[in-house]
Amino acid sequence: MLNVRYAGFGGNMEVPCYEDKKGKLYFDENNGVGGLNLYTGAYRDEFGDILGEPDKKVTEVVRCVEPFARHINENDYRMLGRLKSDCEYFLGYGAGNEDALYYKNVAAHCDAMEKLWNSFSEADKPEWLSMEDINEYRHIMTKALMEKNSNYSGTIDEPLVNISDFEYDEDGYLHFSVEADGWELEGLYRIYDPDNGDSMTLISIDYGFLHPIIQRQWDRIEKALYNETIDRFDEFKEKYEQRKLKDKIPASENVTESVTLQHSKGIMSAAIEKTDEMIAIYKNEGSKNVTESVTFDEEEQKEILPR
Questions:
Q1: Minimal CA–CA distance to 169: which of 217, 229, 116?
Q2: Closest among 180, 234, 171, 213 to 188, alpha carbons compared
Q3: Cα dist. 72→117, 124, 204 in Å?
Q4: Which member of 58, 96, 103, 201 lies 3.0 to 4.6 Å from 108 by CB, making a disulfide possible if both were Cys?
Q5: Cα 57 to chain center, whole Å?
Q6: Residue 69 to residues 1, 23, 47: CA-CA distances in angstroms?
Q7: What is the 8-class DSSP label of residue 48?
Q8: Considering only CA atoms, which of 131, 103, 106, 108 is closest in space to residue 119?
Q9: How far apart (Å, rounded) are the C-alpha atoms in residues 41 and 24?
Q10: How many CB atoms lie within 10 A of CB 221?
């Protein structure tokens, strides 16, 4: 019989692990459900963490006084925790967006939390979430949703946010700043870059989703940027087409042309030097060479002239 004790979690899959009297470690491949199913292959590193992978199944009888056993409601606890986290996100970075909720609706989401919480026995109800907490989430989330919807009811009479610090880059974009709710936010507008999306489009405003005024005026900001950049649309389109045309020329052709040009220059240089040398010789010995070329002695003439 193999006597073991629970030693904590370990391995790549973070499963329960056990240790025998000799210090040898084992993985429980049943993961705390339905009794122990031990495998060798576990070991501790220098920091005391349990590492390794399951190797050989333990076939002898295993005995453990206090084995790790997962709670029957563990999956329900995990789901309830997920729903609670969604509520926190909705009220924070989610900015009141119901798409951030598991059930895509505040009322349905809170109803599911309440139903799941009530499914636990009194002894098993989680200490980290009470029914009062769920009701509070329902109240403040509903209020946040109403405020968000009322913010979207703003009219065109609302003054447009201040847009400034225009800066054009070489890739077809306009960088700019807007002032909203006392904050200066950076934005990006695409003029012409068809490889990455539609032209004349407002791409982003940093943290704009946290500012209701930005959300209300998004279309108006985009229109203002359109008017600002329309005169330069053709310019950026032409730059884009020139870049594309340049990219189509294979690098090997450029290298070949460069080598060929250098070779041609070398030949021309050598020819010029040779020509200069010949001219110098001609100037210094021209008359002598000419005389020698047309003067023959009598013997040579006899040999050459026909008899």
A1: 229
A2: 171
A3: 14, 10, 46
A4: 103
A5: 42
A6: 21, 22, 26
A7: S
A8: 131
A9: 9
A10: 22
Nearest to 170 by CA among 239, 112, 226, 106: 239
> Of the candidates 9, 8, 44, which has an alpha carbon nearest to the alpha carbon of residue 23?
44
| Cα 7 from chain centroid (whole Å) | 39
CB 259 within 8 A of CB 195: no
Could you give the CA distance from residue 15 to residue 11 in angstroms, rounded to a whole number? 7
The structure tokens 């986290």 sit at 85
Number of continuous H segments (helices) and E segments (strands) in the chain: 7, 10
Residues whose CB falls within 8 Å of the CB of residue 117, separated by 6 or more in sequence, listed in order: 80, 125, 126, 129, 131, 134
Largest CA distance in the chain: 144
pLDDT per residue as tens digits for the range 172-211 = 999 999 998 788 999 999 999 999 989 999 999 987 766 7
Q: Are strands 162-168 and 173-180 parallel, antiparallel or unpaired?
A: antiparallel
Q: What span, in angstroms and rounded, lies between the C-alpha atoms of 121 and 187? A: 52
pLDDT per position as a tens digit, 142-183 = 988 887 776 555 555 688 999 999 999 999 999 999 998 788
Tens-digit pLDDT profile for residues 231-252: 999 999 999 999 888 887 665 5
Sign of CA dihedral 230, 235, 237, 243: negative
CA dihedral sign of residues 62, 19, 67, 120: negative
| Nearest partner of 54 among 33, 74, 84, 29, judged by Cα | 29
User: Whole-angstrom Cα distance, residue 48 to residue 27?
Assistant: 16
